């Protein structure tokens, strides 16, 4: 051996800290606060130090330098951080960014010039008054409904389109006189002979939409090329397409596509008229563009004449439907002619629509009229008139002619009735704006008196205010239970009502009666599919507003409907939604889990993927409901229910399960485990953990949580008996230790097993279960060679060397108080550690192994002391067990020599590889360990110490400049406090040699 290590007895405080120690009055990271006090002509700073004292900086010469050594940014920005300082500058500079600041400055300059020209103005202005119904924000925008209509009303049948603008341009002949020009334009409007009009047949829905988009493009292109008549003809031909109901189920989508083109046409006409309507600013000769809120008096006569010409052209269209649609499209242009023209035009067009014979075509024309009118005026009279006309002809929807038409199109009456919903919903929504409850009651009364009023009732529930529906929930249930529902299903109506009441509940006194009456009707429908559609919505209403009894009754009804003939196999989605809503909205989730109908409800899910999703959602809802409270689980029924759900999740985990899925399931199950608490009944608690271990064998995190929970249970037992175990409690903590020892091998992750073995051994040691502790420690050390060199963490490969070092340091600190097993020899566990540590594949350039050996020297230095720094009650550590016996001390010294030799060998390898920095650092570290724990009166050790210092000084350029001085100061500190005379003398001699080399 090149080293002859002899441990010395020393005081524990001799080497607590290498650096100088000093007291601090507050946390060193606490920031100082600077308050800037400004007054006229003076400015001073009051600095509040970390300890709370204040220093006045008005006289900076009197302030200590330490008080001013703040962050440079703090000094530059007067004590505040840069972002706060910039924010103050922005506030004072009118904006939050440079562009906003520039805009604010321009507006400020403009306001100053305007005030100078026209006098002082008021700083505040009145908010803009709404000019039409859409600006009231009381109605859902059409754009929000447009996509839903296009997605819902589709077809696979072939479509056709009639147009003359998709095959090429048109010929334009010159006109010289005004009469010829007018005559030619009228001829163009009627130019629909066979030679110019082309019918495209057998178009798919996608091809039809493409053709419509081409028409849209042609219209805009013609307008930009000043071909106004051509643009008008395209609008007319597009409007004519709305009279075609050959593919009737596509009609609502066709209406959306065509009216989009008409809207563009109307906007082009309006913008064109406005550009031509420049007016003379009163008192000046300057022409100005019309403002947004212009009046007809501001419009020039030429612009009015042009506007009238547009309406004359449209009035000359011979067919009713295109004449209606095109005039509605440019209805906004009436604002150029007269102030009150909108109301008159809207009522006139409402009466003209009465000439349309097909009720479907007519109601969509009324829808377009109401949609355009709502964006023009606040008047609602025409909307009510349109509704009156709809109710007047409502019966024709069900007459024989319509039924023959439906049969010809091979669609059901239900499918045909649903075509009316988008248009009728929009009209009724417009009627409901700013309407009193009594007026809505009148409309409801008129609607329910109609034959087959289901369509009207459904549209009313979708369009009227939800609070109006909720306050009359009983009445609606009675109506829906008794009226004829031809054309729609009763289940569809009750589903809609349930959706409304889930978000806007009825008055408290009505809620129970509403639920009872509705469920009575729903359960008697005789159609399982309709029942499930309704139950899916009423599940939320039931769980939100009622207790356990009503929820149990609701689930019982669902089970009765689903069990016969295995009907549940066709309704997994609806059942899943019901369970999710019941659990997520439950006021008492423990009560829900304890219901007799809950587990039978879960048994209906026979498909594993669906059952897995349902169980995952249940545990997620439980975690969300119990995350913010301290509620615990101690009901065996609830525990069994959650255990059953956890078993389903555990059984779904296999080798193909993704890491994210495994982590999510583990988190849910672990939350459940932590919530189970039987209080002082520790035996029942341990029995639960035993059952959970048998159920959750596929989840490492769940098993880890179980082990932590059992260790906590053993620690709680010790705390209750205050460390003095009885025969019963001793047997219980041994059972806990045995549980942990036999559970840990089931975990796949090696690192997790090592940590759990170490923790379980520490808990066993705390409870004086020495045999169990030794077994855990030995099992942990045996796993060191199995630790992989790298592991994947967050998608990146990282080395495990840091983990191994941390584990060894934790183990050594525990090993200080672990008594030796008489059958294994002196420091058996340490020898086992020294045997297995080299088997880990350390990097050749890594300093981890040498760092571990340095910590082992620390441990051996403590092991040689007469009294150890800490103990466990009732555990006899090696200081008491051996009593500093010379043979024991000799064994410790021998181990120190062995470890020191390994470090010297590593120093030699570093020298050969020219790693000067690592070599110098290791030399300094070993030097400190020797002067702290070894007897320097031994010649070999003293010589080794001097050589190590010389080696570190030799390469002083590669280490920190202050490090050598720190080591020198620490050596002097040891020489002053060491009690052994021989050690003190050696330290002073060593100190002289050290100083001579600096």
What descriptors fit this protein?
998 residues, mainly alpha, 3-stranded antiparallel beta sheet, two-stranded antiparallel sheet, 45 helices, 9 strands, 62% helix, elongated, endosome
In short:
This is VPS35 endosomal protein-sorting factor-like. 62% of the residues lie in helices and 4% in strands. It is mainly alpha-helical and 998 residues long.
Descriptive notes:
A hairpin with a 5-residue loop joins strand 2 (42-48) and strand 3 (54-56). Mean pLDDT is 83; it is low at 17-22, 32-79, 90-96, 102-125 and 167-176. The protein is 62% helix and 4% strand. Strands 1-2-3 form a three-stranded antiparallel sheet, with no helix packed on it. The protein has a two-stranded antiparallel sheet with strand order 4-5. It is mainly alpha-helical and 998 residues long. The longest helix is centred in the C-terminal third of the chain and has 27 residues, at 886-912. Helix 30 (636-651) packs antiparallel against helix 31 and helix 42 (916-933) runs antiparallel to helix 43 (939-954).
